[in-house]
Specification:
337 residues, alpha/beta, 6-stranded antiparallel β-sheet, 6-stranded parallel β-sheet, 12 strands, globular
Length: 337
């Protein structure tokens, strides 16, 4: 902890300003520039604020010059979280990227370009709309995991597959730019942090890829080569019906090519010719050959259509993994989203 100064600086080169303004500001600017160059204009506010507080505050402003404390001060004072866990808020649709006849990425604006969503890795949020159900208005709520993260200030992205019988997904497909949706969060028992386990096995089906992708991207961002300490190994089985149903395949393939600690294996019911992935359903034999064996330092994550997850739970139990609970907890070996 630096020594508090109780006198107003008398010179631009005074020791007070050097140790309590210039040095911490330089540390923050360097860190922000290294991690997120587009945030530099906002980070430039810090030296101005610190200097003003020291000069006009009669020297009563005390600051710790340790980098971690400086970054914490900056993040708490500048970055604001958009989500509220107990209140639904309206977020406006700003972009829609159509991927197929029934799949699109919906980008919603946050309160300002500097806001972050405020969703811990592994958690999800509730999306609500008042719809006509059986001839009566009813608030319908569904849970979704964004494919964006807090690394993307100013917006969040939802990957939605619209189903004829799906209330929220069908409603989402009718949205126009400028329309809004109600969102509340964070929620969920899974909160990922580096070192949670040594290895993840993942089984996803359809849009169940979204929570997996969120965690995979966080792990890859946190690799030692990127300045982090995350060495978690990840093996993913991604099951779909047809080749065109494989959502975000280019993203997954790019991550697998970039990171030797991430491996993905695709399974299709109706594969094309010269297909080198799995065919049919995800069987216990496929899981045994592609996923880490049961151990205390691994977790098996699952997300997909209910019939698939029911079958995967039975398969996992037959392979010696811990029996999944009806509602998963963070400490469980088998976690179902």
């Amino acid at each position: 902890m630096s020594t508090p100064y109780t006198t107003r600086p008398t010179s631009p080169l005074s020791p007070q300003l050097i140790t309590s303004v210039y040095l911490p500001s330089a540390i923050v600017l360097f860190g922000v520039g290294y991690a997120k160059k587009e945030w530099l204009p906002f980070a430039l506010v810090i030296p101005i604020v610190l200097g003003a507080l020291h000069y006009y505050g009669n020297g009563q402003f005390v600051i710790d010059t340790q980098p971690r404390e400086i970054c914490l001060l900056w993040s708490q004072s500048v970055v604001k979280k958009a989500l509220k866990p107990d209140v639904f808020q309206d977020f406006t649709l700003k972009e829609k990227t159509v991927l197929s006849h029934n799949v699109a990425i919906y980008r919603f604006s946050l309160q300002s370009p500097t806001h972050i969503l405020g969703l811990p890795i592994g958690q999800h949020m509730s999306v609500a709309a008042t719809l006509t159900v059986d001839g009566k208005p009813k608030e319908v709520v569904r849970s979704y995991t964004p494919i964006s993260s807090d690394e993307n200030p100013g917006y969040f992205d939802l990957l939605i597959k619209s189903y004829p019988q799906g209330n929220i997904s069908r409603h989402m497909s009718t949205l126009k730019i400028g329309d809004s949706m109600k969102v509340r969060g964070p929620k969920g028992a899974m909160v990922y942090s580096p070192g949670l386990v040594k290895r993840f096995g993942m089984v996803a089906g359809g849009t169940g890829i979204t929570p997996m992708l969120q965690i995979i991207r966080a792990i890859v961002r946190g690799r030692p080569r990127n300045g982090g300490s995350d060495t978690t190994e990840v093996d993913l089985i991604f099951a779909n019906v047809n080749p065109e149903d494989i959502l975000l395949k280019d993203d997954l393939d790019a991550l697998a090519k970039e990171d030797p600690g991430f491996r993905v294996y695709y399974v299709l019911n109706n594969p094309p010719e010269k297909w080198d992935g799995g065919v049919g359903f995800v069987t216990p034999d496929v899981m045994k050959s592609r996923l880490p064996s049961p151990s205390k330092d691994m977790k098996l994550l699952m997300c997909g259509p209910p019939p698939m997850i029911s079958a995967m739970k039975k398969a996992a139990d037959s392979l010696g993994y811990d029996k999944p609970r009806p509602v998963s907890k963070l400490e469980d070996q088998v976690f179902c989203f």
